[in-house]
Amino acid sequence: MKLLVIGSGGRESALIWKILQSNNVEKIFFAPGNGFQNEKTQNVQIKAEETESLLKFARDEKIDFSVVGSEIPLSLGIVDLFEKNGLKIYGPKKEPAKLESSKSFTKRFCLKYSIPQARFATFEEYEKAIDYLKSKEVSFPIVLKADGLAAGKGVLISRDFKEAQEGVKRILLQKEFGYSGEKVVIEEFLEGEECSIMAVCDGEKSVLLPTARDYKRSLDNDKGENTGGMGGLSPSPIVKEGSDFVSSIKDKIVDRALSGMQEEGHPFKGTLYAGLMLTENGPKLLEFNVRFGDPETQVILPRLEENLLEILVQVSEGNLKFKNFKTSLNRCLTVVATSKGYPASYEKGMEISGIKEAEESKAIVFHAGTTLKEGKLITNGGRVLNVTAVGEDFNKCREKAYRALSFIKFNGITYRNDIGLKIVERV
Ligand code: AMP
Ligand code: GLY
Fold it and tell me: Cys staple from 201: which of 49, 93, 110, 206, with CB 3.0 to 4.6 Å?
């Protein structure tokens, strides 16, 4: 098969790494790709949001199957476009992708289909939002969310009325989050532990992927700003894979969303990622994503003992034949090496060395923000590399990953030192 993988991050590199383990891959085009190179892969200089150009490329090259990594092309309707033109592609269409691209849509959808979530209200007008914040219904802290895609940044937690008023101003009046700030969702603050569950869905049925956790904050001990993810590990230490608890999450959250989408006439095919808060009153949905998580994918795929390409093709055909996925009992952990300054501003163009040595020390190095320039590998983004290790426990994974990381050098290399540290697995 000739494949096209759309994206440029660590997640897409991990998808390619896993797909390359299938026997029937002739070539993988990677658009726009990163510095990863393999005899079967080739970068294509088309950005993920240039959906028409991607279509033209896929038709010209007679691509058999395409895989979309990130939410932006999905929210632009790339799957609708490819399928209308008779091309096979993995991911949800534009309408079901609203489960990620519109928080107000998702809140109403969850209400309609009894998916447990935080209580909420939605406003377009500043004055009405402020009146609501002054009402008896509201207690603090409270959570404000800009409606649309905001690269994980559109969520503000306000401790009191003053902060909340300021937050509503930033979202609705100052439009700090761009067009996604046309509506604000104000929701109850939930307390508990967070976890995320991912499932592949063929429109009707879902099969859970291995569990994972990510490390969102930039600094050790979960200090610093929120980022796209500074590291991750699988399985999640707080929910046991295969347990009744996980099956109840599948029933109450993933499968209700699937049957709801079917009822709406927009079956969901692709990866459904549920971000959850495990509260005293049971798991509640914080958000849906409609694609593989990054960096969760980088720790899940090394544990998945199945042919990923077969799964993705079956999903796109609406006929997933798997009942569950064989998963290794090993642990997996990834540490993200970032450019100095990330998630705020950072420089690009630093030369990278030591990947070969890191790989020889038995780690898997997934490329993210890297590129090749005049034959040299240089940094090209905030999250640069994902140094990933598999082992029988998280301590062994940590040793391997951090040892591998010690070989990798570039100016300003920054990473958290506490990924996988002091993990107590609940069984
Ligand atoms: P989201 O993009 O909706 O997942 O929100 C990003 C982060 O904000 C989550 O991972 C939580 O840490 C936090 N968050 C979002 N909604 C709530 C809520 N209702 N209560 C408490 N924390 C929340
Ligand atoms: N790691 C969170 C996400 O992919 O959205």
Answer: 206
- β-partners of residue 3 are 28, 65
Residues with pLDDT less than 50, the chain: none
Point out which residues pair with 219 in neighbouring strands: 223
Q: 2-94 — its CATH code?
A: 3.40.50.20
Domain 331-407 belongs to what architecture? Alpha-Beta Complex (3.90)
| Radius of gyration for the chain, computed over Cα atoms and rounded to the nearest angstrom | 21
139's tokens: 């207690």
Per-domain residue ranges of the chain = 2-94, 119-188, 193-316, 331-407
| Atom 4, ligand 2: residue with shortest CA distance | 293
Q: Which fold has domain 119-188?
A: Dna Ligase; domain 1 (3.30.1490)
**Mean of all residue pLDDT scores within the chain:** 95
pLDDT of residue 180: 63
What is the whole-number distance in angstroms between the Cα of residue 229 and the centre of ligand 2? 7
- Cβ(220) – ligand 1 distance below 6 Å: no
> Tens digit of pLDDT for each residue in 215-236?
999 999 999 988 989 999 999 9
Q: Which of 155, 189, 281, 290 to mutate to test the pocket of ligand 1 (most atoms within 8 A of CB)?
A: 155
Question: Which ligand is in closest contact with the Cα of 195?
Answer: 1
